[in-house]
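Quick start: read one record
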Amino acid sequence: MQKLQFGHRFYFHFIAVVLVFLTANASAQNLGRVETALVHATALEGNLDGDSPDRDVIIYLPPGYDADSPRRYPVVYLLHGYGLRAESWMRFARIEVGANTAFSGNGGGVGTGERAQEMIIVSPDAYTIYDGSMYSSSVNTGDWETFVASDLVTYIDEHYRTLPTRESRGLAGHSMGGYGTMRIGMKHPEVFSALYPLSACCLMDGGAPSEALTTAGQYTTRAQVAELKYPNKSTLARAAAWSPNPKKPPFFLDLPVMDGTEHAEIQAKWLANSIIPMLDQYTLNLHKYTAIQFDVGLADGLLGVNQQLDAAMTQAEIPHTFETYEGDHNNKVFERIETKVLPFFSRHLRGE
């Protein structure tokens, strides 16, 4: 009898181990994976800031990518904000976790039991000597617009099983990445078909006097610049992107405020690189998009300008959806990507 009881215990223990193994194996099959590629950016070669044209790019591959080898996937290009690198952006926004949840049907944004369609997610590293490229085009920073819309898209289409059409490509980003989403999206509707900027910055920036601008002209070495924090360093990042001056070493840029004096011609350049003033020029391009959605937290300092963008797009009759939510600039980014951004692209990007 003692032996029989031991046999029963052993049997049930064995069954329990098998069930745990099968459950873990099934769970693992519902997880995507992340890898990093080094992508050479022809568009960034020769930039005066001396930043490398070889950029780290983090690629999230969905759960079915390895198991279903013939299948091709839509791609979401997800741009990080100022002060981050691609790797820290992936951690900050918990993109891998959010994608796994959304693609397993356990997220809250698609509907109970309904999965977001699986997608490839691509995040390029836009960190520079000024902590951010502004995803703009200048002789200082290089042509980030062309890098994202051409060099990067071409690389991803050549090296991964994508659906290489605009109908299967989306562009999104947070803060500086939200600005990049609108800027690049406005200029390249032939590449992307859906846009989702989160808490976009730089929607209306005319280089008005500020403490950061007042002190920006005092720095003379890169060592001094390296020690700067936000917002002082971001002022130089915007100047490098929007008001470069190749004849003005060592930083090759002009500032809209120098020695307490406002320079209207430089302020005009900054304003011309702001999203809301750019709308009139690119309204027809924005009409070509299948869907545009953007959001901002009610406690975010960028709430007002995002509301202005909503009003300007409404006046221009550009179809879009605008949402506000309880949150500040950073604390709900993970939640928004999982429950809003990925479901949005699931609905609007063409799958196989």
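The CA atoms of residues 39 and 55 lie 5 Å apart.
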